[in-house]
Amino acid sequence: xxxxxxxxxxxxxxxxxxxxxxxxxxxxxxxxxxxxxxxxxxxxxxxxxxxxxxxxxxxxxxxxxxxxxxxxxxxxxxxxxxxxxxxxxxxxxxxxxxxxxxxxxxxxxxxxxxxxxxxxxxxxxxxxxxxxxxxxxxxxxxxxxxxxxxxxxxxxxxxxxxxxxxxxxxxxxxxxxxxxxxxxxxxxxxxxxxxxxxxxxxxxxxxxxxxxxxxxxxxxxx
Length: 222
Hints:
- By secondary structure, the chain is an alpha/beta fold.
- The chain is 41% helix and 20% strand.
- The chain has eight helices and eleven strands.
- The chain is elongated and about 55 Å long.
C-alpha cells in the first residue's frame, strides 16, 4: 500500500484528500504545518508527499529543502498563489510536480499516480521513443525520417524523454544543458524548444508531446 503524507493548513482540505486517497487504497498521514510535516516524514516514511506552499510556520519551499537534505521521496506541491515564482522555487528546491489551487481531485490523483510510477523501481527505459510520426533512438542518436538534431537539441530532448510526464524546470534544463552560468537565459530554451517542435511535432503550433508549462518549464507527454 502506497503511503502518502498530506501537508496543508486547511482542515477541510486535509479531510477531503484523506477520504479520497483512503478510498483508493492509499495509507495516509496528515500534517497541518511545516514542522509537523518534517517530523511526520521522518516517522511515517511516506512514499510520496503532497505539500502546500502556504504553511503557517515554515514556508513550503523551506520544507522541500529540509526534506531534500535527507530523502528523495517524491513531492507534489500545492499552491494557491497567483504568481509562478514560488512554484519555480519549489521545483528548483527539489519538488517533482505541482498542482494549482483550486484543483480537480482527479487531476491531483493523476499527478500522484504519475509521480509514484516514476519513483517506483522499473526496467530500463526503451531506447526508441515515439513522438508523433517520428521515432527517436536515444542510443543511436537518430530520428526517423532523416531528421537531424544538433548536439544541444539532443541534450534537451534526451532530458525530457528520460523523464516522461515529469515537469522539468527551466533552471534545471538550462543548468544541465548549458551550465550554471546560464540559469536565467530562458530565451535559449524558447528558441531550441521551437526548433525541436518544428522538427518533431506533427503540428508545431499545437504541440502534443513537447509541452510548455508557462513560467515553469517543459514536460514530455508520451
